[in-house]
Design a protein that fits this description.
This protein is an alpha+beta fold and 216 residues long. It has two domains: 65 residues, lambda repressor-like DNA-binding domains (434 Repressor (Amino-terminal Domain)); 124 residues, Umud Fragment, subunit A (Ribbon). Helix content is 21%, strand content 27%. It contains four helices and nine strands, in the order ααααβββββββββ. Strands 3-4-9-5-6-7-8 form a seven-stranded antiparallel beta sheet, with no helix packed on it. β6 and β7 form a beta hairpin.
Amino acid sequence: MPRNKLSPLDIKVREDISTNLKRLAHGRTQQQISDETGIPVSTLSGYFAKRSTPNAGAVQKLADYFGVNKSDIDPRYGPVSHNLEPVTYTIKIPLLGTIACGDPILAQENVAEYIMEPTEHLPSGKLFYLRAKGRSMEPTIKNGSLVLIRQQPEVEDGEIAAVLFTDDDEATLKRVKRSGDTMILLPDNRRYEPIIASKDNPVRILGKAVRVTTNL
């Protein structure tokens, strides 16, 4: 499965952390920092080289070691407060309506509107929303729910995928199961029948469902 690409914001955060760590190190080696903080050298090198992003615990250890605020290392953290809450960054995630056949998934003509989301708990990669229609995936996904999709061309067996039929212009949400060369699209609602993908009924996987939001 292809590696998910980082968002521009994730890349910027890693660049800022790398710059800050190099500035604070003042000639200290990564081995010296590792010895004092307990963070493995291999992990530290990832932060310095912009290959990985430290979690809250690692940021705190580095801040304690350098004698600075967490925000002096990681831009996701704001000015010092009693609880050191991180700054909330938001991005616009497209909510797709109909999907023009042959166009890229996130083409402007496919977007019905945009939804602002805090980035803190979002997965990496290209994301979009779909609004569930119908009751075939209940009780997992209720009719009208917003479903966050990470764009990817394949999913594992048992995962819920956004699937586009070649002769349709709206994606459907189904659980994917494979049997040899056959792909079976399974509803969670037992009142609905499975759908068999075939040469006569071709489908295209748009992405994996990673979160469901339902209004009460």
